[in-house]
Amino acid sequence: MKLGRISVNGPDGAEARLVLVVPEENRVIDLKRALHEQLVKEGSSRESALQYANAVFPGSMSAAIALGTPFTQAAEKINAKRPDAHSISFDSVNWLPASDPSVVRDGLTFVGHIKGFHEKIGAPPTPNLLKVPGYFKGTPHTVIGHEAEVPWPGYIQYMDYELELGYVIGKRAESLRPENALDHLFGITIFNDFSARDCQAVEMPIGMGPTKCKDFAYGIGPWITTVDEFKDLDRIGMEVRVNGETWGKGDSSNKLWTVGELIAWASLGEVIVPGDVIGSGTMGGGSALELDRKLQPGDVVEMIVEGVGTLRNTMGQPIPDLWWPEERKPFM
């Protein structure tokens, strides 16, 4: 089952709606409207049916996933029938990020990218990568969806993409173990960790993790495919194209840490909640840096993941006249 979020015009302006995605028919089904109609046909009053449909299919994917069985069962029932009513063609859809996570987490697990990245920056990988499944936390407030333009702060000179899977959490948990962590995985989406490589070179030696080199944009979409549709999480085909040209192609194998280990580590001593998205880390060859290339304004970046779909974004124009701090004099 494939589930997404779109924006529709409501009586009070734009509002988020959850949709069942039927890619083979190039349409989505508005889940709230479909459930409302179904309940009215079964005898519910329109007012009560609307209240129930609003509760089961809110505009927040995180809130819907947190509802658990009532949400998934209602969606599966509509998926079984796939009614034509309340359908919207892909051509008319305004996509929102597939999930609205409470926080963005992004891992570093693919051996090929770890090697390729460090070869390009001329430094060996830290041995600490072998000790724990490292990840960083980013802001959820700059998450963008399918077909959205990517904001480009003018301080960025070296813009890059990063092709990743997004692991969408299905249940609240803390201090999981790898053997039960996958029970808390709701589905897979595509995660594009846009990166300012020039800013990254300045920030990372500080030792506090990435900030302005990452938090300007994270692509999540186009939708979520529930985990039951994947036979092998380590053999998912992945590809990135820029302006129609393939720049990287591979799959989700050759990871230093398993999906279960990454999720368990993220939950260790803290809480993960429904709708949270954990980036898999970049596939080997899944960044322009590894190819000695970089993005330009107006470039169209497409990320294709087998079993999910294509996340497409266009790079915006650099935003001018932004403040940037003046370098301080040495104090040591």
TrEMBL record:
Domain Fumarylacetoacetase-like C-terminal: 103-314
InterPro entries per the UniProt record, alphabetical: Fumarylacetoacetase-like_C (IPR011234), Fumarylacetoacetase_C_sf (IPR036663)
Top-level taxon: Bacteria
GO molecular function terms listed in the Swiss-Prot or TrEMBL record: catalytic activity
UniProt record similarity statement: Belongs to the hydratase/decarboxylase family.
PANTHER family named in the record: BLL6422 PROTEIN (PTHR43211:SF1), FUMARYLACETOACETATE HYDROLASE (PTHR43211)
Record's protein name: 2-keto-4-pentenoate hydratase/2-oxohepta-3-ene-1,7-dioic acid hydratase (Catechol pathway)
Organism from which the protein derives: Pseudomonas jessenii
